[in-house]
Specification:
CATH topology of the largest domain: Rossmann fold
Shape: elongated
Distance between the termini: 22 Å
Strand order of the largest sheet: 2-1-3-4-5-6
Radius of gyration: 19 Å
Structural class: alpha/beta
CATH class of the largest domain: Alpha Beta
CATH superfamily of the largest domain: Response regulator
Number of helices: 11
Number of strands: 8
C-alpha cells in the first residue's frame, strides 16, 4: 500500500520533477500544489495518516503558525519542511511546531525518498546541512517553555514523543561522552553522518551484529530509545575536538579530549 503524500511548493518548475520522482516510489501524490488551500486542508483532516512535504523559502513565524494550525486540525499528518535556507533556530522551531523532518532543497532525489521513507516509519529526520540551535528571535515558544531551550521533537517507532537534544538527568554532556569507548564514539560519529549498520561495519571491518551490540551500548549509556535520538544528541552535545581526536594517532581518548558543543547532523538512518 502506497503512502499518501501532499506536496506544497511555491516553485511550479519543480512540480513535474517531484511528480515523476514519486511515481516510482512507495508514495502516492494526492496533490502537488504551489500552496496549501482549503481543499488540501480538508484532505489532510480526513486522512488517518499522510505526509505533507512543505516547500518554503525559510521557516518563518507565519509558516510556523500555519503548521501548528494544520497539526491541530489534522493530527494524522506528518509534516516535512523542505527549506531553501534556514537559520539554526528555524529547525528546532519547526520540530517543536510538529514537523517530523527538516530538509534542505539541495537534497538529492535519493536522499529525499530515503528521508520520507524513514518519516513514514515514524522517525524524525534532518538533512546533514540542517543545524539545530536556539529558537529564532521571532519564533513563538510553546506555553510554559523557557525561552532558549532546544528540545527536538520527533516520533519514535511507537509514536511516543521524543526529546533527543537533552542530556541524561544528573550527568553533564562531557560525563556522558566520556562514558563512551573510542569504538562507540566512532560508531556515533558515523551515525550522525547517516551511515547504516552495514556501512559502519564495512568501514570498521567488523560484523553488522557487532555494530548492533555497540549501538545497544550507546543507547543504554545515553539513556535514549533509538539511533535517531542518539544522532540528534551527538549533534548538540559532542565537541568537534572529540571527532578530531578520533582521527588523531595515539592512545584512546581521555578526559582532556571530551567536552560539549553543537554540531551539524546528517540524515538519520
Amino acid at each position: 500500500m502506497r503512502t499518501p503524500l501532499i506536496v506544497t511548493h511555491p516553485s511550479t518548475l519543480l512540480h513535474d520533477g517531484l511528480r515523476r520522482l514519486f511515481t516510482k516510489s512507495q508514495f502516492a501524490p494526492v496533490a502537488i500544489a504551489p500552496a496549501l488551500n482549503e481543499d488540501l486542508e480538508r484532505q489532510m483532516g480526513s486522512s488517518e495518516s499522510c505526509i505533507w512535504l512543505m516547500g518554503v523559502s525559510r521557516f518563518d513565524a507565519a509558516t510556523q503558525d500555519l503548521l501548528r494550525r494544520v497539526m491541530t486540525a489534522a493530527p494524522g499528518v506528518k509534516p516535512v519542511i523542505l527549506a531553501a535556507c534556514h537559520a539554526p533556530g528555524d529547525v528546532s522551531a519547526a520540530l517543536r511546531a510538529g514537523a517530523c523532518g527538516f530538509l534542505c532543497q539541495d537534497i538529492s532525489a535519493e536522499q529525499l525518498l530515503k528521508s520520507l521513507e524513514l518519516i513514514a516509519c515514524g522517525q524524525a529526520v534532518l538533512h546533514r546541512d540542517c543545524r539545530l540551535g536556539q529558537p529564532a528571535p521571532n519564533s513563538a515558544n510553546d506555553a510554559g517553555e523557557e525561552h532558549g531551550s532546544c528540545h527536538t521533537r520527533g516520533f519514535a517507532a511507537d509514536d511516543r514523543p521524543i526529546e533527543a537534544a537533552t542530556t541524561p538527568a544528573g550527568s553533564s554532556a562531557a560525563e556522558v561522552t566520556h562514558a563512551l569507548s573510542r569504538r562507540e564514539l566512532l560508531i556515533l560519529r558515523m551515525l550522525t553522518e547517516g551511515a547504516s549498520n552495514k556501512v559502519i561495519a564495512l568501514k570498521m571491518v567488523i560484523t553488522e551484529s557487532t555494530v548492533k551490540v555497540h549501538m545497544k551500548a550507546i543507547l543504554r549509556k545515553l539513556r535514549l530509545q533509538n539511533r535517531t535520538q542518539a544522532a540528534m544528541w551527538a549533534r548538540n552535545h559532542v565537541d568537534e575536538a572529540v571527532w578530531a581526536g578520533l582521527s588523531a594517532p595515539g592512545p584512546r581518548l581521555g578526559q582532556g579530549h571530551r567536552a560539549r558543543v553543537e554540531t551539524v547532523h546528517a540524515i538519520a538512518c
